[in-house]
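Shipment paperwork, digital attachment
Item: protein structure file
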Amino acid sequence: MAYVKIVSGQPELYSYGQLRSDNPNTSFPKHPDDAFLAQWDMYPLTLVPLPDVDYTKNVEEGTPALVDGVWTQVWIVTDATAEEIEQRKASQLEKIKQQRAYAYRDEADPLFFKAQRGEGTIEEWEATVQEIRTRYPYPEEQV
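Attachment content:
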């Protein structure tokens, strides 16, 4: 369970373990309820899934916000810098190249060698190569 603790009027991410560590001379229940935690200015935090963004955006966790009486996780989405975008494109291209290489080795190469031995056809091999290219497409900008 995720929690916030109000410190100097501001919410901070906090855990029940932290509360226990911060108060070593206090006995705490094993499974506290929300009313008990509220006595310590500690409240449940509703977790929100990460926003679905592409490589042109940065996502970072913001300060939890009180929404309709419930402390809620907040995500801040900002534009990535040109440098970050180029770095991410290069990283993605390398990942795709590696995925293709593994797929060629594991799926297409055996079919090519079978065709060379007369145990398969070049058409089967070509179809597999095309399927791999479709499965792992290069970003348009990199082609």
